[in-house]
Amino acid sequence: MLRHRFAIGSVLVCIVAAVAIASTAAARKPARRDAALAARLHAIRTATERFEDVNVALKEGYVRDPMDMCVTAPVEGYPPQLGGMGIHFFRPDLLGLTATTPRVAGKGTHTDFSTPGVLVYEPQAGGGLKLVAVENLVFADAWREAGHTAPPDFEGNQYYRMIDNPATTDVDEAHGFMPHYELHMWLYRDNPNGTFAQFNPNVTCRYHQAKPAAMPPAAK
Fold it and tell me: What sign for the dihedral angle of Cα 178, 181, 187, 190?
C-alpha cells in the first residue's frame, strides 16, 4: 500500500513539474516577442529622433502636406474620442508619387520604418511642431502588383487599408489619397489606444493654423 501511494505521489509530482515547465516555456515566448519588438522600436526611434527638429526633416526631402490638414478622427468619419493624428510630412520619392489629382496616387511599397515615408507632427501653441509619430504608406495597387496577396505588416501588426467612400461627401476616409495601406508608430507620444493605432487621444489639433500650399510634382 505504501509503495502504491508512493508511486501515485511520484506521478503527481512529475505531472506538476511538467505543467510548471510547460507554463514557464509558454510564458517565455511572448516575453521574447515583446523584448524583440521593444528592441526594434528602440532602434527605429534612434534612427528617426533627428526628425524631432522639423527643419532636419525638410532638409532631408520631407514635404509638408500641401493641404496642411491636421487630421483628426472626425475628419475621416470616426468618433472624436479616438483622438487625432496631426500634420503629415512625407517623402515624395519614398511614396513614389505619380499623380496628385484628382487624388494622390503612387507606386510606393516602402515599409522601412527606420526611414519612414511619413512623419507626423502636432501643432504647438507657439506655432511650432512636435514630432509624435512615424508612418509608412503603401499604395494598394502597387503592393498587389509587386506580388503580395496580404496587406503589409510590422511584427504582426497589419497596416490599415484606407479607401474613400464616395457616399460620405462630408468626410474623406483616405484623406485625399488613392486606396492605400498605412501604419502609424507612436514613438514620440504615448498612445492609450496602442502603439500602432490610427489615432491618438493625446494628440490635439487645437493650435493648428492652416497654410495650404502647392502639391509637389509627381515623379516622372
Answer: positive
